[in-house]
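EI: anyone free to look at a 470-residue chain?
SC: sure, send it
EI:
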Amino acid sequence: MSVLGTTVFKVPELGELGYRLDQANEKKRAAAQAKLEKKIQATGADKTYAESGMGLTGKWKQMSDLGFEVYRRAALDFEETGSADAEARMNTAARNLNYYVSSGKSILSEMGKEYQNAQNEGFSKTSLNPTEASNLYTSKSNDMFGDDEIFIGNDGVSIIVKDVNGNLVEGTQSSYVSTNVTGSNALLLPALAKEGKYVNFRNYTNDQLRAITSAASEAEAKDNVTTLLDSEMDNPALQNDMIVSYGKYQLGQGKEDDKLSDTEYFDLLEKGQNEEYRDKAFDWYRGKVLEEVPPLYKGGSTSRVSGYGTGTSYNFTIDQDTKQVLSVDKDGKTKKTIEIDDYIGLPSITQAKGVLDPISNNRYNIQGIGIRSEGGKSVFVMDRVMSEGAEPFSLDSGKQYRRYISPATLSEFRQLPAKTQRLLEERVAEVYDQEYYDILESNLIGFKDNEETENAKFDFNEYLSEKGLQ
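SC: here you go
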C-alpha cells in the first residue's frame, strides 16, 4: 500500500491567473508596438518634416504638407495592422516626403542665395531693377498650386501635381522638385546684355569732338559728323548698336537708362534683319547723333537756350554758399562736408544717367553740379551718386563710393543731356557772365588750353585718312 505524499499543491485562483496572462500579453504587445515605432522612426520622415518642412514656402510647402498627410496615414495603418503591405506603403510615403522636404529646402535656399548675391552686386549683372528682381523672387518662392492642381493619387500613397507644362504628374517627377535646374525650380534672374558702346548715341557724337570743334560753323560740324557716320556704316558692330538703340529708346523697349536682358537684346537684333526696320533705325540714329552736335560745337558764337525756365522739369536754381557731403563710402559712412560756392541740384530728367566709371566698370548718376575754388581757380565739381542697381563706383583705385563730389572731367560733362549743358551755360552766364562760364569750361579736367590752336591746324580730310575712312 503506497503512502500519500505530504506536499500540498495550491491551485491558483482564476482571477490571478487572468491577471498574469494579461501582463504577459501586454508585454508582448508593447514589444511589438515598440518594434513598429522603431520602424516608423527609422524612416526619418517625422524628424525631417518637423525640422525643415514647416519652414518651406509656396508649392514646396504644399507638396511637403500633403506628403506628410499621406505618410501619417500610412504610418497609422502600419501601427494598427503591422502588415508587410502597410509597412511598404509607409516606407514609400516616407521616401516621397523626405524628397519633397529636402528638395524644397535646397531649391528655396538656392533661390535665396541667387537673390542675395544679385543684391550684393547691386543687381548690376541682371537686366531687372531692384524692385523687379524682388518681385520675381517673392513670386517664385511663394507661388501656390490651385485647389485642383495638387491631390492624393488613387493609390493613396503618391501625390499628383499639375506640372509647369500643364500635365498631371506624380509629385516626385515634377519639374518643381527636379534635380535639373529649370525655370520652375530656380530664380534665374535674366542676365544683363553686354551692349555695344554706341547703343548710347551720345557716345558716338562725343567721340567725334575734334571733327565738331574744328568746324567753321554749326552746319559744317554736322556735315563732318554725317561724313564720319556714313563712312562707318559698313561696320556690323556699329549697325547692331544703331538697331538696338532704335529698339531700346524709340520703340518703348526701355527707357534711356533701362537695362536689356540677353533675350531682349537678341530679339532687337533679330528685328534688325528686316530691311525696312533697319533703315528706320539708321535714319533715327543719325538724327539723334546730329541733335547732339550743337552743344558740342565750339567754333561759332555761343547759343542761348529758351523755354526751359521756371515751371518746367528743367528749372535750375543756383544755391550759393552751400555745404554738401563730400562722400559716402560703400558701407554708407559719410565723410566731412565741403563748402561749395554755387550748387545746382539736377532734376532727374536733366541728370547724366549710368555714367561708366572706368576703374570699377560700375555706373553712377550725376545728380548735381557745383562751382568752387580748387587750387586757386574756379572749377565745376560733379555730385555723383551710385546708380540704382549698381555697385559702388570707384573714381580712384582702392576706394569705393555711393556718393562722391570732386572736380568734373570733360568726358563726364559731355555725358550730361544736351539741354542740361545749354541751360547750365545760360544760368551761369545770367548770374555771372559768359566769360566766367568759358573759364569754368576750360578748367574741366581733360580740356586742353590750346584747343583753339589745335583746331586751327586740324584738317578734317587728314583726320579721315588717319582713321582709315577715306
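EI: Residues 44-146 form one domain.
SC: 👍
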